[in-house]
Amino acid sequence: MMGAIILLHRWLGIAFCLLFAMWFASGIVMHFVPFPSLTEAERVAGLAPLDGTPAAIAVADAVAASGVLDASRVRLIRRGDGPVYIVSGPSRLRAVRATDGADAAVTVSDVALAIARDHARRRGLDATRAAVVVHEDHDQWSVPNGFDRHRPLFRLALGDATGTEVYVSSSTGEVVLDTTRSERGWNLAGSVLHWIYPTVLRSNWLLWDRVVWTLSLLALVTAVLGAILGVTRIRLPYRGWHALHHVVGLATTMFVLTWIFSGWLSMDHGRLFSRGQLTEGEADAAGAVPDWTAAASINREPLPSLAREVEWFAFGNIYRRDRIAPDRQVLLGGGKGGDDRKTGFLGAGEVRAFVARFVTSCDAPDVIADNDDYSAQSIVPGAPVYRAKCGDVWFDVDGADGSVLQRLDASRRAYRWLYSALHRLDFPFLMAHPSLRDGLIVGLCGLGLAFSVTGIVIGWRRLRLSFAN
């Protein structure tokens, strides 16, 4: 039995030692440089003010013109080519012109270029040398599934000192992503390596999921076998690189095992644990298609002159959310009979009534603290996030826009600790001391890298010896 373990660990180790080293090294990089994205603050800052001008057609007419039968949200923005409604539902996303309801998809590169320049100017970026690079479905930075409803994307280089590139959705004409030269370079050494994220593989989500899940599982088996050998053969007189591999391996056993195990869990995607999302039945009940004609009563209130975006969303009744700045909004509640009111965010009573649409026997929602063990962040800084506890299942709802941020059952709460805490070290104490957390992550990943290098040397020598014979 022990001989089989030795042989299996030896050859799996040779096969995976480079992968282990890559994971530890890239883990350090991606801790400090996240994958490129357009933050909500950047998105809102790049929007043009609506100037208090109402749209020519009503919200209900825009929904009808869009053909999105399950529309749950409608946004009004002003692009360089005029005001546009963006109608979205679980199945589709479509833009229509606010003047006549005509299709507002972007098919011409010159329009995308004008949108990108306007967005950049409002964010204080230099776009005097902006140019369209390509119009395509996927590239290295736009492979995440969240961009699927916006494909194909226009990628445009601003030509500024930081090498900024922005991506414009052909569906809505919005800027949905930006990257800089520094972000791209560091992520090639960070997230792209760590997640095994080359475009050719990641553009096929199902294939990527199966490949990385399998590799992670085999890596976990390799680590477990190594731990067994390290403990059972602790007194053997190893020499040279074998001795170093043995000693460093014993010193890092717990970290390597928990980190590889939690890394494998990052690819769970509902296999063993729940996904933290509403069930199909809950989503259907929560997202029942509203009567969009009710938005007319709210729209008797003129649009603020400083509003950059107006959103109507279904939360039991229809609500209107006027975005004035990334951290400032006005919310108008669409009560029956036009009983509207102004406020900043949703209240606990409204959240409770909403949750009652798809689950019963819930406690009164409470605002969760920023340092909560299962924290969730609102899309608007400073906005409350409410937690409604319904027996063993908790629902966290954004007080800014009514989004259900996470569904926490016992399985998902366990996943939070087994994956997030073990892999990212986001324990509450360490999150309160970021410098200590940074040091631990760098130090432990550095030890893991050193351990992997000893495996690489041993593996290379074993291969040379095998080929020589």
UniProtKB/TrEMBL annotation:
Source species, domain of life: Bacteria
Pfam families: PepSY_TM
Transmembrane segments: 12-33, 211-231, 243-265, 440-460
Keyword presence, Transmembrane: yes
Name assigned to this protein: PepSY domain-containing protein
Keywords: Membrane, Transmembrane, Transmembrane helix
Coiled coil region boundaries: none
Signal peptide: none
